[in-house]
Design a protein that fits this description.
Blueprint: H1 4-11, E1 25-26, H2 29-39, E2 43-48, H3 53-60, H4 66-71, E3 76-81, H5 86-94, E4 102-106, E5 112-117, H6 125-148, H7 153-165, H8 169-182, H9 188-204, H10 208-220, H11 229-243, H12 246-259, H13 264-278
Parallel strand pairs: 1-3, 2-3
Antiparallel strand pairs: 2-4, 4-5
Helix pairs in contact: 6-7, 7-8, 7-9, 8-9, 9-10, 9-11, 10-11, 11-12, 11-13, 12-13
């Protein structure tokens, strides 16, 4: 005889049934975002598949934990079966989900806040949820500011840097490019950081001329920064080396050794010069 729990598991695709003492999972991505926007809550997305044993382990342990269930009330919770159909597969592809389980926290606009690759038990996951909740407050505040003032440079910079840190490079590039157009009144260190990160994205995407331009723009900003200028120089050298402009790479890295001999990037510059000289 099949018990009630087994029947419920079959009907819900292998996930625990919704009760008053369990996480209330949404099943549609767009609907979850709409609900989150209305409630002004971030979204907790659990990417799973039937064959994923650790995904089922999350259901049996972490998601059944009373503290996790309590904290889930601060989020709109969504399950995405990565093999459930083309739409769910597209959602997984959108967020570069390559291994399971993956847990992603998003803003109601769908921007990543925090990513967890792999299993977390009930002892650790509540702290992750609290961290994601705190980060969501900041990111959603930047989004709200930009919704009403699209050219707000401080919020653009903060959001662009955050997305870079979350490896959402395409959207980070778009926002950082907007930032450099309007950030004249932002602190010099922030302006340098924005140009450094944008230069990194452009260089690794093979857009060397764009990378060179934005990195040199960062170096031209005053005052000189012992924190960011050596980083800008090092990335400029890497760009030249990848571009095939070896002599210019050598000049830039030697400038680091001359101006920042005691800094952490002097070692990196020496190593880069050693590799460059060996590959003649």
């Amino acid at each position: 005889m099949i018990g009630g729990l087994a029947v419920a598991l079959l009907l819900t695709g292998g996930t625990p049934p919704v009760t008053g003492h369990s996480i209330r999972w949404e099943r549609g991505f767009e609907e979850a975002l709409k609900k989150a926007k209305k409630a002004k809550k971030p979204v907790l997305v659990d990417f799973w598949a039937d064959w994923c044993g650790w995904c089922h382990r999350l259901d049996e342990t972490t998601y059944a934990d009373p503290e996790v269930v309590r904290l889930s009330g601060d989020f709109v919770a969504l399950k995405v079966n990565t093999e459930g159909g083309p739409f769910d597969a597209a959602v997984a592809a959108r967020y570069d989900v390559e291994s399971l389980p993956t847990i992603l926290f998003l803003t109601p606009a769908g921007r990543p806040v925090l990513r967890v690759n792999g299993f977390q038990g009930p002892g650790q996951f509540p702290r992750t949820m609290e961290m994601a909740r705190e980060m969501s407050v900041k990111v959603m505040a930047w989004e709200s500011k930009l919704e009403h003032e699209p050219g707000h440079a401080t919020s653009l910079a903060a959001l662009g840097v955050h997305l870079f840190d979350q490896e959402s490079y395409e959207e980070s590039r778009t926002i950082l490019q907007k930032t450099v157009m309007v950030d004249a009144d932002v602190t010099s260190s922030t302006r340098k950081k924005v140009r450094l990160l944008l230069g990194v994205i452009q260089s690794y995407d093979g857009k060397y001329a764009e990378a060179e331009s934005v990195l040199r723009e960062g170096l031209s900003l005053r005052p000189v920064s012992d924190e960011y200028d050596p980083k800008l120089l090092y990335m400029l050298g890497k760009t030249y080396a990848k571009w095939g402009r070896r002599d210019e790479a050598r000049v830039v890295w030697e400038e680091i050794l001359s101006k920042y001999a005691d800094g952490p990037f002097a070692r990196k510059a020496r190593e880069a010069l050693h590799v460059l000289n060996r590959s003649k």
